[in-house]
Design a protein that fits this description.
The protein has eleven helices and 15 strands. It is 30% helix and 18% strand. The structure holds threonylcarbamoyladenylate (TXA) and magnesium ion. Threonylcarbamoyladenylate binds next to β5, β6 and β10. The site of magnesium ion has 3 residues, from loops.
Length: 341
């Protein structure tokens, strides 16, 4: 199958393909999503095949208008109304109990709940409207690889497997949405993202974090969080920001004869300029928001160099505020491994 790029001018063609049950990737403020008509069982199944995604991992339903979720959810609690008013369109996904059979079980992974979000991207909101149906949208990468933050990343992973890609440059946030479960007694963050616990609590009061986010030993509640994720083929090691042991890591790598690349802020890269290391700058200075925007692109870039690296060393941030989402993704990419002197 040929994979066609679409833009604002050709959006109606992309919507037509989606109505016909084809797969079209779309941009959002977080990462690119792999779109399919959420009400079309066969189209949704094709998403799992294209991504090579485990079938028990439910998909987020993307809407162009908050009212659209009313056909699927059993109730809209008052706190949900407040969260939607504050954060939609934006990087907050909400999980609700759903009306039985209102969505194909391929969307919900067989759960009684489903997740919803209204993305903050004009082209994609227009695409959903023109399609006339909500769209499922997992990150548009091959399962297990870093999520795509450009249309080119999507093409790299899925060319020939999907009908099209709506292209709109690089995504502004760079990490997937915060996933907040509203189906239980206490609202619980299952996946950290750009909307932080503090920002949510400012609107609805105390919430919880899924305990697995603090302990790698516990099983996460969100099916997708248990899989190996975001991993380049090259081994990734984190450099603890408290220890700051870059020099020890460089020396060790030289002794071991390992070809390394570094993923860090430009100031740090400059500090080691005389070592002539392969590098990718995550931000101009230490800044976790900018670093989040570039993390997946950096992992992909260093993983795909013509001359393969043995090791990618990445700078870390404290696990608080926006740093929680950055570290959640980076720790998975690094298989939890820090450099130890
Ligand atoms: O920012 C995002 O959320 C992106 C863009 C494209 O919108 N989408 C995205 O989708 O990250 P995906 O499928 O890669 O991640 C969805 C996550 C998975 O971890 C999945 O297990 C979880 O949300 N999830 C979805 N529905 C759920 C449910 N009913 N209960 C628990 N977890 C759920
Ligand atoms: Mg994903």
């Amino acid at each position: 199958m040929e994979t066609t790029f679409f833009d604002k001018q050709t959006l109606a063609e992309a919507a037509q393909l989606l109505r016909e049950g084809q797969l079209v990737a779309f941009p959002t403020e977080t990462v690119y999503g792999l779109g399919a008509d959420a009400t079309n069982k066969e189209a949704v199944k094709a998403v799992y095949t294209a991504k090579n995604r485990p079938s028990d991992n439910p998909l987020i339903v993307h809407v162009a208008n908050p009212a659209e979720i009313l056909s699927f959810v059993t109730a809209l609690p008052e706190i949900a109304t407040r969260l939607i008013a504050t954060f939609w369109p934006g990087p907050l996904t909400l999980i609700f109990e759903t009306i039985p059979d209102s969505l194909p079980s391929a969307v919900t992974g067989g759960l009684t709940t489903a997740s919803f979000r209204m993305p903050d991207n004009e082209l994609t909101l227009a695409l959903i409207e023109q399609t006339g149906r909500p769209l499922v949208g997992p990150s548009a990468n091959t399962s297990g690889k870093p999520s795509p933050t450009t249309a080119e990343h999507v093409y790299h992973d899925l060319a020939g497997k999907i009908a099209g890609i709506v292209a709109d440059g690089a995504t502004s946030i760079g990490l997937e949405s915060t996933v907040l479960d509203l189906s239980g007694h206490i609202p619980t963050i299952l996946r950290p993202g750009a909307v932080t616990q503090g920002e949510i609590e400012a609107v609805i009061g105390a919430i919880a974090l899924d305990p697995h986010l603090a302990s790698e030993q516990l099983v996460p509640k969100s099916p997708g969080m248990k899989y190996k994720h975001y991993s380049p083929d090259t081994r990734v090691l984190m450099i603890d920001c408290e220890k700051n042991n870059w020099l020890e890591a460089f020396n060790w790598a030289r002794q071991m004869n390992l070809k390394i690349g570094i993923l860090a802020n430009a100031k740090l890269i400059k500090q080691f300029a005389e070592k002539k290391l392969v590098s990718f700058s995550l931000s101009s200075q230490r800044d976790v928001v900018a670093a989040s925007q570039n993390l997946f692109a950096g992992l992909r870039a260093l993983d795909e160099l013509p001359e393969k690296l043995d090791l990618i060393l990445v700078e870390t941030y404290p696990e608080e505020g926006q740093g929680l989402a950055f570290m959640n993704r980076l720790k998975k990419a690094a298989n939890q491994e820090f450099f130890e002197a």
